[in-house]
Amino acid sequence: MAGHSNEVAESIDVLKGRGPADLRELSLELSAWMFYLGERTKSVEEGRHLAETMIVSGPGARKIPAGNSVARWRRARH
Protein backbone atom coordinates (compact mmCIF):
# COMPACT_ATOMS: atom_id res chain seq x y z
CA MET A 1 0.00 0.00 0.00
CA ALA A 2 1.29 3.45 -0.84
CA GLY A 3 0.16 7.02 -0.92
CA HIS A 4 -2.19 9.07 1.16
CA SER A 5 -3.85 6.21 3.06
CA ASN A 6 -0.47 4.96 4.24
CA GLU A 7 0.40 8.42 5.56
CA VAL A 8 -2.93 8.63 7.35
CA ALA A 9 -2.39 5.18 8.85
CA GLU A 10 1.06 6.19 10.12
CA SER A 11 -0.40 9.38 11.60
CA ILE A 12 -3.03 7.35 13.42
CA ASP A 13 -0.25 5.15 14.79
CA VAL A 14 1.59 8.24 16.08
CA LEU A 15 -1.57 9.42 17.85
CA LYS A 16 -1.72 6.02 19.52
CA GLY A 17 1.90 6.31 20.73
CA ARG A 18 3.32 4.06 18.03
CA GLY A 19 4.49 4.67 14.49
CA PRO A 20 7.80 5.62 12.92
CA ALA A 21 10.18 7.50 15.23
CA ASP A 22 10.91 10.20 12.66
CA LEU A 23 7.22 10.96 12.12
CA ARG A 24 6.57 10.97 15.87
CA GLU A 25 9.44 13.44 16.40
CA LEU A 26 8.22 15.71 13.60
CA SER A 27 4.66 15.59 14.92
CA LEU A 28 5.79 16.52 18.42
CA GLU A 29 7.92 19.41 17.15
CA LEU A 30 5.13 20.81 14.97
CA SER A 31 2.58 20.39 17.75
CA ALA A 32 4.87 22.14 20.23
CA TRP A 33 5.16 25.14 17.95
CA MET A 34 1.43 25.24 17.23
CA PHE A 35 0.60 25.20 20.95
CA TYR A 36 3.11 28.00 21.52
CA LEU A 37 2.08 30.13 18.52
CA GLY A 38 -1.58 29.63 19.37
CA GLU A 39 -0.80 30.89 22.88
CA ARG A 40 -1.91 27.66 24.52
CA THR A 41 1.53 27.38 26.18
CA LYS A 42 4.13 29.94 27.27
CA SER A 43 7.05 28.22 25.54
CA VAL A 44 7.81 25.70 22.81
CA GLU A 45 9.19 23.34 25.47
CA GLU A 46 5.92 23.54 27.37
CA GLY A 47 4.10 22.90 24.09
CA ARG A 48 6.17 19.79 23.48
CA HIS A 49 5.39 18.50 26.95
CA LEU A 50 1.68 19.08 26.31
CA ALA A 51 1.90 17.25 22.97
CA GLU A 52 3.68 14.29 24.58
CA THR A 53 1.12 14.19 27.37
CA MET A 54 -1.75 14.22 24.88
CA ILE A 55 -0.27 11.31 22.94
CA VAL A 56 0.24 9.27 26.11
CA SER A 57 -3.24 10.03 27.49
CA GLY A 58 -4.89 9.46 24.09
CA PRO A 59 -7.32 12.32 23.31
CA GLY A 60 -6.12 12.65 19.71
CA ALA A 61 -6.59 8.99 18.93
CA ARG A 62 -10.09 9.01 20.45
CA LYS A 63 -11.17 11.68 17.94
CA ILE A 64 -10.71 9.31 15.00
CA PRO A 65 -14.17 8.08 14.04
CA ALA A 66 -14.68 4.35 14.42
CA GLY A 67 -16.12 4.17 10.91
CA ASN A 68 -12.98 5.71 9.37
CA SER A 69 -11.95 3.37 6.54
CA VAL A 70 -8.23 3.79 7.29
CA ALA A 71 -8.85 3.09 10.97
CA ARG A 72 -10.81 -0.05 10.00
CA TRP A 73 -7.98 -1.12 7.72
CA ARG A 74 -5.40 -0.64 10.49
CA ARG A 75 -7.43 -2.68 12.98
CA ALA A 76 -7.72 -5.49 10.43
CA ARG A 77 -3.95 -5.51 9.90
CA HIS A 78 -3.08 -5.74 13.61
Describe the structure.
The protein is mostly helical. Helices cover 72% and strands 0% of the residues. The longest helix has 17 residues, at 21-37. The protein is elongated. The two termini are 15 Å apart.
Order of helices and strands: HHHHH
Query: What's the rounded overall pLDDT mean?
Result: 82
| Low-pLDDT segments, ≥5 res | none
Q: Characterize the overall form.
A: elongated
Measured by DSSP, the beta-strand proportion falls in under 5%
- Supply the helix-strand structural class: mainly alpha
What does this entry show, briefly?
This protein has 78 residues and is mainly alpha-helical. It has helices spanning 4-15, 21-37, 44-57, 59-62, 69-77. Helix 1 (4-15) crosses helix 5 (69-77) and helix 2 crosses helix 3 (44-57).
Properties at a glance:
78 residues, mainly alpha, elongated
Layout: helices, strands, pairs:
Elements: H1 4-15, H2 21-37, H3 44-57, H4 59-62, H5 69-77
Helix pairs in contact: 1-5, 2-3
